[in-house]
Fold each of these.
Amino acid sequence: MFIRSRNLFLLGVFSILSVNLLYAAQGPLKVVTTQAYYANLVKEIGKEKVDVKSAASPKYNVHFIQPKPSDIRNVAHADLVVYTGMDLEEWWGPLLEAAGRTDFFPGREKSADLSRGIRILKVPDHPLSRAEGDIHLFGNPHYLMNPENAKVMAGTILEKLKEMDPANVSYYEENEKAFISRLDQKIGEWKALCSHCTGQEIISYHEDIEYFADFLGIKAEQFLEPKPGVPPTPKQLQFLENYVKTRSIKAVVMPTYFPKDAAESLAKRIGAKVVTVCQNVGELPGTEDVISFFDYNIKEISEALK
Ligand SMILES: [Zn+2]
């Protein structure tokens, strides 16, 4: 009698365990991304089969995010993580460590480095030192600003979701295909809207604009920062004022989170406009997904360069 009830008890425990395992296998894949832009890409491809959260609020400068306790909890319970790679998000490694998830370290199976397959701009031809102020030692990591690169990133995310959830391969493939086709159509519209931008020159606060400029055929080689990560100096502003004397510059561009005074003062002196170009999905109202983010940015620059 005792043996029988113990067996019944064990059977009960195993049933609960297997129901839980079954539930875990069928529940949405829990994904944490560094940025809201990537969370939107994951959602476009995974739809209801993924539960996605991003760590960096688009209101803040992505180079210097302070992760919150909820970010640590989200990473601790995640199945997959997605990040920029290179050295844009220096806070990401410490966050993974704080969450105790060394299995998410770069190069590991459940970790998607979106820089894979991207043509990186400004790869230095000599070693740089962070001591001199540079914050990007491996080339420009702001590749999300070119919508063509969103296609490469979507491909990387698709491969990872297929690996992690083989039962839904065709579902993810169909969603990715639909997203790419929508993006391709928009890319045509954006290029047409900004066809007059090609060949024009702008000045940017940080080098976060280069991929965006590259996409539209705009020249962006001068920055308010004398070096990436070093705030504008009077000397740099004087240099820029002299630089534009022989050129036509209609726009000084920057995202929302840098101080605006240097850009405004320069723009006033050279007769240009300060233009907001968002660097992350959701940075301003109406930019909540990748498509509306580029819609906004390209409309803004197109207007300014007319
Ligand atoms: Zn940067």
Note: The beta strands are 29-35, 50-56, 80-83, 111-113, 201-204, 219-223, 249-254, 273-276.
Amino acid sequence: MYRLILVILLLTILYYLLRQMFRGFRGPLPDGQSNSPVQGSEDDQDQMVEDPVCHIFVPRRIALIESIGGREYCFCGKECAGRFRNEHPV
Ligand SMILES: [Zn+2]
């Protein structure tokens, strides 16, 4: 019984490995076939932005974006955003 489970497990791992390999070979999917509805904005979300306080680079999708004094700033977290606001009163 245990052997059967082991074989199924191995096949599953093999399946995922092969899928990953094929995905790598094909590269990015052409337009229309990808699952993401908006490709352009997705690239934008992956863009790395610099935190002006601690100078850490964070992907735009997880960055805390605050509009301070008409400009947009990207922070790694609330702590840095708060510090930036204190240093730059509008
Ligand atoms: Zn920071």
Note: The two ends are 69 Å apart (CA to CA).
Amino acid sequence: MMNETLKIINNRRSLRSYSEKAISDEFKDLIINSAMRSPTAGNMMLYSIIEVDHQVIKKKLVKSCDNQPFIAKAPLVLLFLADYQRWMDYFAVSDVESYHIREKLPDRTPKEGDLLLACCDALIAAQTAVIAAESIGIGSCYIGDIMENYEFHKDLFNLPKHTFPVTMLCFGYPKENYHSKELKPRFPQQYIHFKNQYKRLNKVDFDEMYKDRELKHYHANATNFGQHMYSKKFVADFTIEMTRSVRKAIEEWSL
Ligand SMILES: Cc1cc2nc3c(=O)[nH]c(=O)nc-3n(C[C@H](O)[C@H](O)[C@H](O)COP(=O)(O)O)c2cc1C
């Protein structure tokens, strides 16, 4: 069974090369309003979306997000922030301070759990934006590297303490019919979908799971796909930087 929604979801792929065609304000609003219809924890909308339309800022992001030039060429760039600041500011103007003292409620600021919940909200909104865009012929690509260089991005976007740039999306129209290109493979469902209990996989499972992922050339003298991914992703400079950056952000949130 394939309806229009399932077709859009199952034919989506990341788009990193965009035509010159601008995205109209009407379509931009459609994408953002759809994102805002996403489920959100406690209906609190623990996120904000910053549209980046300044070319100077886009060029800075190219560099700070691990040198990805297509960011500067994307007609629409949306930064998704996990955002508890809006609630903290609202609590402040609502005189929560005297209220919590009067009612002997805890005096609390956002902590790690709040950050993770806000990240969930922001990411769910982002993925809704992806699907909404796709449904009107606009492709997209996530930029996970926005979690790197926390101090730089904080300064660049004037981010207050209880926000965190959890993801960024580049949008644009494809240059050619990109739906004719092959979809990137996913693992078979049996390795991803378990019932009731987690299932640890063994070598036999992994050999089967990765049998289509063998490459002609491996990275950094690796002799199999596992070693290749270890060096290319897991211990790569961008991963190490992301860990440093996220740790710094969590420290600031939780102070
Ligand atoms: C959280 C996240 C971060 C990503 N970051 C980047 C990125 O920084 N640059 C990029 O080119 N693609 C990025 N991608 C896109 C993935 O590389 C892409 O989804 C994956 O290779 C599968 O390809 P597909 O989306 O075409 O199916 C990211 C995707 C996700 C979900």
Note: The chain is about 45% helix and 10% strand.
Amino acid sequence: MLRYFTAGESHGEALVAFISGLPAGLKVDQSFIDRELWRRQQGYGRGGRMKIERDTAHILSGVRHGMTIGSPVSVQLENRDWKNWQEALPVGEGDPARHKRVASPRPGHADLAGALKYNFPEARYVLERASARESAARVAVGALAKSFLRELGIEVLSHVVGVGAVSLNPQASWEQIQNLFKREEILLNCVDAEIEQLMKDEVDKVLKTGDSVGGVFEVVAHGVPPGLGTYAQWDERLDAQLASAIMSLQAVKAVEIGSGIAAAAAPGSAVHDEIGYSVDGNFTDFTRTRNNAGGIEGGVSNGEEIRVRGYLKPISTLRRPLQSVDFETRQPVSAAYERSDVCVVPAAGVAAEAMVALTLSRCALEKFGGDSMGETVRNFQGYRAQLQSY
Ligand SMILES: Cc1cc2nc3c(=O)[nH]c(=O)nc-3n(C[C@H](O)[C@H](O)[C@H](O)COP(=O)(O)O)c2cc1C
């Protein structure tokens, strides 16, 4: 079974990710992992932190001679900012006078709920773990999942479809999204240059006013065979697993599969993807005229592209802070401010790619099994032959 965890505080020494259940014999390309980490750090509207960090994956276990060996893989990402925080966040007792308190909770962040839950007198420890710095660790193991999926012909990428009030319409093609991936500069990761400029203007607007902005990303999984996930149990449905994986990302407040939101207001005849038959021979000869279902019906992948969107609320740390209360005095004060991003939609999309890749990998391993890549690929090809002769 594919399982993964992360550990680490935003300003601690390092982040660590741990993944077990990958078959042996999967090629591990360090430069691919580092490029994925770089992509997560990009985007117009990021804060100063991203100028300090340049993440690289340090693999500690589970990979030898460039390949997985079937044992758990652990990866460490150093926090370059740690050198400035050793006295404020020591593992040992340290000097309390050096602590950096977060004196007033930020509305929208985890500060108040976390401090109440863990009985902390202020929010420093809360934001250290609630911070989306954690998502870098997911991207590291997500890169391994992407490498695994590639062996089955599955690719996972994302693009941005909305920033604030600006949105992309119509749907981006797989080719357009692939071209985005090749770019060496990531601004708002939108396939349409004119819309991307409008998105940039939207970020400039909030930069000027000390505000922040949210948006929408779309993750597309290309080459997914029919049959991943199942309707047989509620928690094994692929749509449910993807929704949970995407919703687990910081600041994501809604998830949409295919055109799920618009579908709720449309008649069935305008929503459901009609079925045809022609000998075009990918996975099967069944065809669809469109893909409103986002590649999933009944909790099972149907052979079309999987399209899943995440809706991000605006970042909660504001340069012009909202009203809050001082933890100690209980007097009204402005919410705390600490160096912050104002727009993270492209980065969230990259983290979401990792979550989709990890989810699809788990489902694929459940279906095809295998302790070595040879065995998994052989099983996959057997299933593919079964589909083709259906
Ligand atoms: C890639 C990424 C970067 C983020 N950067 C910041 C940030 O710099 N400042 C901030 O206040 N929130 C940031 N967030 C959002 C917070 O982490 C998130 O709002 C907070 O942990 C509370 O969780 P919730 O929004 O899911 O309720 C970021 C989110 C993502 C996905």
Note: Residues 47, 109-110, 130-132, 135, 249-251, 313, 315-317, 340-341, 344, 347-348, 351 surround flavin mononucleotide (CB under 6 Å).
